[in-house]
Design goal:
alpha+beta, 10 helices
Length: about 250
């Protein structure tokens, strides 16, 4: 497939507001060792105390989009808790979370309306990461993002790489109906821009490694045990105020 023109990446925090910048500085995206995106780390956080002590930052909670048309999200738009995940398809610990933890969160919290999960593409491992991110967005345009996500994070999938033929095979496995459209969408400026927006948001809050999470503004670093996410989600649900009357499921919710 044609290679889209690369968009320059911003590695400086974006100004989401003074409070967000201060929060990012305070948490340093929690317990990560500071690792520049050029030499990303897949090492999960050493422990959980740091992220639990980091607390909730309301300005970071506002990064939740709650957009019913968001094809890279699952769960009700009026769910009391939103988990934002910043991840890379070449990240081994992102795959561990996707296989071992996320399905349980979906079953326990998404299906009962408590939790919404919003994906942010955060490719930090080079060209194949960026290609996989654009391909995931393209699959989403045909309502198959989560199926592509599952295929790309299957055990052993990342070892096969994310070249052009492999991405097309993953799209086929995910049930993407129009593979020619998928190829065009993957190479499109729209895909490049969508990935860049997610990537810049991650840099803007100080994220340097994957996976990184926000749960109603509370940062959680790395593929932590299920219990860490359970505690954070239940605490956020207990504290949450009602969110309007949107009541719509995002397209692609399964």
């Amino acid at each position: 497939m044609p290679t889209p023109t690369a968009r320059p990446k911003s590695r400086k925090p974006l100004v989401f507001g003074t409070v967000v910048v201060l929060a990012a500085g305070l948490l340093g995206f929690v317990s990560y060792r500071a690792t520049a995106p050029d030499t990303p780390s897949t090492t999960p956080a050493v422990g959980t105390a740091a992220e639990e002590d980091a607390g909730v930052h309301p300005e970071l909670a506002k990064l939740a989009r709650r957009d019913a048309a968001d094809k890279l999200a699952r769960g009700r738009t009026d769910a009391p808790v939103v988990l934002i995940e910043y991840a890379d398809f070449k990240c081994g610990y992102c795959g561990k979370f996707a296989r071992d933890t996320e399905p349980e969160l979906v079953e326990k919290y998404v299906e009962d309306g408590t939790l919404r999960i919003e994906w942010r593409n955060f490719p930090i491992f080079g060209k194949e990461s960026e290609a996989a991110a654009r391909a995931s967005w393209a699959a989403g345009q045909q309502g198959r993002f989560w199926e592509f996500h599952r295929a790309a994070y299957a055990d052993g999938a990342k070892e096969k790489g994310f070249g052009e033929d492999r991405l097309r095979a993953l799209a086929r496995e995910a049930g993407v109906e129009d593979l020619d459209r998928f190829t065009r969408d993957t190479a499109s400026a729209a895909a490049t821009d969508a990935v860049a927006r997610d990537q810049e948001q991650a840099y803007g809050i100080g994220a340097t490694s994957t996976p990184s999470f926000l749960i109603n503004g509370r940062p959680v670093a790395g593929a932590q045990p299920l219990s860490v996410f359970t505690r954070a989600i239940e605490a956020a649900a207990a504290d949450a105020a009602p969110v309007g009357n949107a009541g719509e499921d995002a397209e692609g919710t399964r």
